[in-house]
Predict the 3D structure of the following.
Amino acid sequence: MNTAAFFRVEGTLTERGSLAASAWLASNAAGVGERVARLGNVALAAPFALLGELQTGATATRVTWMGVRGMTEDRLVLLAEEYYEKYLKDDVLDIGRDLLKQAKKQGRRVVLISDNIDLVVGPLAEQLGADDLICNRLEMRKGKATGRLEDPVIGGNVTGQWARAFAQEHDIDLMASWAYGASAADSLLLSAIGQPCAVNPDRQLRRLAKDHSWPVVEK
Amino acid sequence: MSGGENERDAVASIRAGWVAETFADKHLLVTGVTGFLGKVWLAMLLDFLPEVGRVTVIVRGKKGEDADARFRRIYERSPVFRPLRQKLGQGLRALVAEKVRVVDARLVEPLCGLEPEAARALMKDVDAVVHFAGLTDFEPDPQQAIDANVRGAWHAADLAALSPAKRYVHVSTTYVAGRRSEEIPERLDEGVSPNGTPFDPSAELEGIEAELRTLDTKTKRVDAAQARAEALGWPNIYTYTKGLSEQLIATRNDVVTTTFRPAIVECARRYPFEGWNEGINTSGPLVWLLSTSFRRFPARPSNIFDVVPVDTVARTMMLVVAEALRDESQEVYQCASGHRNPLTMGRAVELCALSLRKLLRETGTDWEKHVLSRLEAYCHDPSKSEVFGYRRMRQAAKATRNFLRDFKLERKLSPDLYERIDGERLQEELRSFSMKCRTADRKLGQVDEMLRQYRPFIYDHSYVFRTDNLVNATARLVGEERSLWGFDVEEICWRHYWSKVQIPGLDKWSLPLLRGEKVPEDEPLPPADDSREGVRRKTGEVARVDIEAEIRATA
């Protein structure tokens, strides 16, 4: 059986979340008026973000990406490339990069999990040499985004159920695998894996890590 | 021919290497190899089909360079020959010396300026004449356009008529379709203009030339030719002369003509390398315009912007010449993307805006980085008037200029006040602003003129050029030859092409010319080792046609 290392991208590898990416894409729509309207739409996701991803699940993620509805695939692809170049490529967190290198050295299958879209995090996964990328995909129709995400939607809180299904499909021993998360929403994933680790954790995850005696690493 | 025979012929053609077999030991006479497309075609011919027997190129000496020197400069320094130079090094000279012969001749003269005996000697073993040469300006001096596009083609066909097989491959343009918004078939309606007017092309040529002779200025000649073009349904002098040329050649029965019509020829996808372009082609000025403060682009978003990479045009042209050499060609081939993989004007403008935004952010001035890159160009209906439209801005600039030209501050103010506010300095600033208004008026006038010329293609008409003949010709290719010579527009990802190929290519090879700058040439091949005169002669010089010797041999 193989072992894997699951990395939640947001928090362990990058500081920027999907809300930032969505807002940036919306703010670069074609016209100035359109940018304002789209940003307003993205802002609707803010209350969900405040409630916390554990409570809202994938709803926050769905609302976050509604703001790009009607933008062309060309625009989203080219802007996502620019976003990656500008904000992600050279800003990978050192601690996450080191953990990922270590996992690869130990022969683990590296799985990146993100609630961002493939256009944004795809190049990052390639850059880091990840084996799998689990992320969201925008639904496109006639060359334009519908504002919906393709199923299954990856929310802030990836569950242990998902991890078990993935492990079964790819013949992975979850008990011998590692998982790295940064926020309380990642606790469901961390609890399902044999070797959980909190990376730069938020307050809630820090408490959980302490309670469960999970290792905590910080930069 | 029966259906069964057709099938057998088709099966016979489907075998590996038939293009190479067809070109083997053939002698081609080619015009226009110093031009954008002809150059790529010749480089590909020498690179991929070294089996070809001989290529005689007609080159005219220019700007103090004779034909030999001009051609040598091309294969030694043009980026188009870079793959061949990298592959063969000094050996390129040997290849050129062995395969290529340069004839210094003028296409505008009957028999290209050759004596009849010399022409017959030259053509005695030519298998096909491939005519690329032409003038692609939209609004040139009409007589020059007629000389290059009509007379030049006629004279090239005259040469073809002297060859044994009388094959003549004529490069035209899809836009001979004129002012039409429909699907354009691959055929020529002889004696009928684009708007359906029956006309005699010979009489038309005589008529327009007679009229041009009576006019003393270029403006009058342009107006006259433009009016004639419009009356027959062509939007400009370029398409009028190209259309007239096709019609005239079609009246000849002393040559077997194959017409090849490319659409808008743009940056290379692969050959000689990604992004290569030369000179100021169709989309160069439009892209340049969008890289300035100009934002309302007068185009209809649903119209097709029919762009084809130059190497796609050159490779399919090779296929067409192969079919002509086998006497299997169709009368007309159109090489366009709109039929199989359409790129709409709206999409092209958005891709252009997004690609330019990236370019401006990377290399622009502060104004370009922080302001222009955030304000994208978009398609705009030119029939709608706008407060900040460029025409209104031009009017405002002109009015301001006129007002300030006669404005004297000294006369308007009391001497005391004039002195107190430093009127002299203020007057100087007003004068400087007046000059800026004049420059703005002139530049906006140039933009207006340019957009007027482009309007038929980006707003007025939506063409879909059928490309069935190239598709069918490609179906007869197998294996490596299909990837080398096949019609591949369906494979083009316009997003990649526009953002990674076209805009960076234009930025490097075309836009500098519009800014009055130079584009780089490659380092020349190192000089041949001239310590041994015999070797130098063998490998270092372009073979020239010794017309006298040819005549003696023929006699």
